[in-house]
Amino acid sequence: MSMPASARVDNHIPAENVDVAQPLLQIRDLRKRFSLSGDFLDQLRFKGGKLVRHQEHVHAINGVNLDIKRGEALCVVGESGCGKSTVARTVMGLLSPSEGEIHFDGQRIDHLSSRQLLPYRKRMQMIFQNPYASLNPRMTIQQTLEEPLRLHHPKWNRQQIADKVEEVMRSVGIDPDWGKRFGHEFSGGQRQRIAIARALAVDPEFIVADEPISALDVSIQAQVLNLLMEAQHERHLTYLFITHDLAVVEHFGTRVAVMYLGTVCEIATTATLFSKPRHPYTQALLSSIPRLEDDRPQHIRLKGEVPTPVHLPSGCVFHGRCPYANPRCREEIPLLQMQHDGTHVACHAVEEGRL
Amino acid sequence: MALLEVSQLDVRFALRQGEVKAIRDVSFTLERGERLGIVGESGAGKSVAAFSLLNLISKPGFIAGGSVRFEGQTLNTMSERGLRKIRGNRISMIFQDPMMTLNPVLSIGEQMVECLKAHRRISSRDARAIALDKLRQVQIPSPEKRLDQYPHELSGGMRQRIIIAIALLLDPDIIIADEPTTALDVTIQAEIMALLLDLCEQHNVGLILITHDLGVVSQVTQRMLVMYAGRVIEQGPTREIINDPQHPYTQGLINALPQMATPGEKLNQIRGSMPSLSNLPSGCAFHPRCDFIRRTDGQVRPACIEQVPGFVQAGNCQAACHMVAELQEDRRLKEESQ
């Protein structure tokens, strides 16, 4: 990175005793509910001659604990509706948690006002799934990339901003001469590069990427994934990477957290998770990846489908589909427990040695 | 004679900017009970190819040449009346998004009975019994209840099962499935694909599976076509193409998969992106992205830029590339030197 040293210092949060061992991001017992019942008047119902207030919630996240270490790429995988995107958005402060805390670099950030959050926003950036929706169609690429710089570096002059924009455009493989074009003039892969450039423009330490390659074609996915890995090595980035594509996780992730219905059921290093999945849901998930090698897949068939997050199952959220469920699973919520190799699994069957 | 014979199919779209050739010179056959995959990225023309089989291309698109023959009848010149006897009856389709396919204001039962009555003289009662039987075949829990439910009451996986039940309703000879599991989660996708595979085998139904997912194709199909910029660039037995792809694009596509690389290493990417169909490069449409276009002396091979490559036989596969023989020789030398 070629940046004037003076420009890098300003607006930086005083981080006095930087502890390298301390996780960059800590999520503590995070819960998020969304109301389905509308406003107060919508919630009133007549029941047995009385007016009753009736509320229903989608329980999107139910007690998630995650630590993200400096320099790692933590992948969160799960199927649609498991709450992985809600975790990403809550971390970025786009949603406020119903309960729980989020600490960034030792500081609690979930209760801050948007003004107080501003210095943290510079250090954490987000890349969204759909580059067709995340770029403002009325702004040129130049304007799109200048906007975060103007906001976070109000003292920079025009030349400094122009230099920085050129540098990030080059680093993502977009010709700086294309700055005057609009988003619609680019292909999907190029748009996602621009979205990545926008995130990198303010030199963040931490990037939340929510399904950044799912909307792209196979040959373009590899290009964008390579770009994200390059950026990680060159800029020492830490990623929270949300995806449903397990093949990508295996390639990209340092550690993996598997989510099901708003809870984390297993956290492990990527190699351990893929060679030795412990949780029955992880096992089923891994067995259903379509692979090139085997032409007759023997995937683990799960009963039924994911229950609705409006009425959560009692006990373990997975018990209705789990082949190993017993009465305890139906009543008691399993907690994440560390195994001898450092993997964390939330499963009674694993704990009891039945699995 | 094959059950379905497609030869030199040419579909164009007459747009204001001029004619766009969506697919050109697409030829393939499908035997009874055979499963064929059509693979390609978005814009490769795979869906247009599937839709044109049943003459479902709507204006401004039209079939400009070639033929689709089913049991000896030419479908692309047939009257709408004649086609209606084949669509849904002998050849049925499964689309990507089940919510768009099902009618939201009719119950599942009504839609299935309607479909049966359109093609057969049958009482409502018998039709309902057939519908129930098909719902059982696609392993839907409590099928009796589902007949009276509406599409919005069911989950995505359940809706796609119902679509499969409807596709099988009239015991067709061929099912064309256009990205049937793209909108679904992996565990559900695996279930649906396994179900589709079982049913096709049980009833000896041919399957044309359109997808961008090489993993799915390799698990389900026996033969495959790879499409690029409106043309078939490689075809042959699925296993052979996956294990030993001949065309540089197919090689690139397979090598770009994360599972082909060591975790943490750089993925093998294909540079650039697919050209727009209205502005195709000359010669081989893949040449601007191809790694093998230059000879060892650094000179660009003129044939790649000037001539559209024809099919070259390689084992049981055919690849549309000028350099198939040379590339094979290169790979052989490389293997020997190792």
From TrEMBL, chain A:
ABC transporter domain mapped to chain residues: 25-286
A single MF term (Gene Ontology): ATP hydrolysis activity
Keyword terms, alphabetized: ATP-binding, Nucleotide-binding, Transport
Alphabetized PROSITE patterns for the sequence: ABC_TRANSPORTER_1, ABC_TRANSPORTER_2
Gene3D superfamilies: P-loop containing nucleotide triphosphate hydrolases
Family matches, as InterPro entries: AAA+_ATPase, ABC_transp_ATP-bind, ABC_transporter-like_ATP-bd, ABC_transporter-like_CS, Oligopep_ABC_C, P-loop_NTPase
Entry keyword Chaperone: no
GO BP terms: peptide transport; transmembrane transport
TM spans (from-to): none
Pfam families cross-referenced by the UniProt entry: ABC_tran, oligo_HPY
Similarity annotation: Belongs to the ABC transporter superfamily.
Protein name per its UniProtKB record: ATP-binding cassette domain-containing protein
Provenance organism: Vreelandella nanhaiensis
UniProtKB/TrEMBL annotation, chain B:
Protein name: ABC-type dipeptide transporter
CDD domains for this protein: ABC_NikE_OppD_transporters (cd03257)
Enzyme Commission number(s) from the entry: 7.4.2.9
Coiled coil location: none
Catalyzed reactions: a dipeptide(out) + ATP + H2O = a dipeptide(in) + ADP + phosphate + H(+)
Biological process terms in GO annotation: peptide transport; transmembrane transport
Membrane topology reported for the UniProt record: Peripheral membrane protein
One GO MF term attached to the UniProt entry: ATP binding
